[in-house]
């Protein structure tokens, strides 16, 4: 085992504490990564709130990070020490099921190994995430960070970015598509940037009218204030694709009403049961879908696309010692648009 340092939930309390952690010794197909920057995803907040603090279920959040390879296993040929890399929210999969065979490891029938809170396929241990100075990962699930992408601002691409990229691509978003993005947070602001870069006419939907200037700066053509019934009514059936990134349970009805005939509402935000009046789908033959994370080919393609178009997240970079402040502010929706932790203070 090797020892590193990270931020760990140590009980049902919602504060993380700096603690030493163990990482496995490298397997032949592993690389060791010095984690430099890790984004703070709303899922981390959900996980910290849900954590029971049982000693056998350690929680170290963090599933979108960038860093530098420090060591490679004996069979690794894709990386050498010194390479800049990025890691997202899945770190292994079975590799042989139908989903893995088509490059959708995120839908692995044997369940992909999550970057934290997952179960390692070989030793059964609980995976500990990227709020730490070192991560050991199977080389297939690390991506070379393209030159030109700022490593701090690129970290959120590995969860927030890929989670919205896959549905945008799967739904054929491009020039002529009318896209709306509901919830202008970490996922939402990247969905706007990516949809705009794909050539789509893009609208942001937010509770906050004061995000209108930001929405335009991100490339959106306009912003609908979701708390204003008149604005929602005015936008009825206006969009081919609505990407819903809202982090709290909510009624899908108002968002389905914005979808045009044969269009799709892709709900990638809060993951939980929803109630849908089927007539909301019936009228206009609308579709409801979801997505999460991304397969290896799509993740690599998304990174290339972002490098080509100069897309990274709008971030507020904080020393990792301020992780609890970041989680607290994220809870209060006080972020534009992603906190990223600088882990160098753990050295
Ligand atoms: P975030 O940065 O906190 O953004 C969420 C946005 O949702 C907020 O900025 C806010 O936008 C809106 N919102 C929050 N509470 C709301 C409420 N009660 N009613 C209406 N709108 C509300 O969070 P994030 O990191 O983007 O994550 C968004 C959600 O996606 C989380 O639930 C997260 O767990 C989930 N997620 C899913 C996947 C996946 O694999 N599918 C991956 C990553 C994250 P406005 O201020 O603009 O209204
Ligand atoms: Zn995430």
Describe it.
By secondary structure, the chain is of the alpha/beta class. The radius of gyration is 20 Å and the shape is globular. The protein has helices at 42-50, 98-101, 151-154, 160-170, 186-197, 212-217, 229-234, 253-256, 278-282, 296-309, 323-331, and strands spanning 2-9, 16-23, 30-39, 65-72, 84-87, 90-92, 113-114, 134-138, 142-144, 178-182, 201-206, 222-225, 239-244, 259-267, 287-289, 315-319, 338-342. The chain starts with a strand and ends in a 5-residue tail after the last strand. The protein has two domains: 2-158 and 313-346, Medium-chain alcohol dehydrogenases, catalytic domain (Quinone Oxidoreductase, Chain A, domain 1), CATH 3.90.180; 161-289, Rossmann fold (3-Layer(aba) Sandwich), CATH 3.40.50.720. Helix 6 (212-217) links the parallel strand 11 and strand 12 (222-225). The relative contact order is 0.16. The strands form four sheets. Strands 3, 4, 5, 8, 9, 16 and 17 form a seven-stranded mixed sheet that branches. It has a six-stranded parallel sheet with strand order 12-11-10-13-14-15. It binds NADP nicotinamide-adenine-dinucleotide phosphate (NAP) and zinc ion. Zinc ion is lined by residues 41, 43, 63-64, 89, 159.
